[in-house]
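Form P-L/3: holo structure prediction, ligand copper (II) ion.
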Amino acid sequence: MKSLLLALLGIFLLGIATPKETKTVHMKIEGITCSMCSAMITKKLTPLCQAVSIDHQSGESQCTYETGKTNQDAIVQAVTDAGYKVVEIK
Ligand SMILES: [Cu+2]
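OUTPUT (holo model):
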């Protein structure tokens, strides 16, 4: 139990010490018809991403995330959960 706490503390301190690495995923999302759709997806992505931008006319979107916090698959899954489909990842 004590070692677990120490391990957690270590991870915590490491998280502070290391600069956060970010990546941006560019996706084309299908099924967006209006600004409400992009607002819905943004709401789903906000807990995962530092920055989200979605063009509701083209479906082109960008999502910047911390590599240690989440990954591309989780982001695609969040879009899917919102009821939309990622058709292209760049
Ligand atoms: Cu809509």
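COMMENT: The first strand starts at residue 22 and ends at 30.
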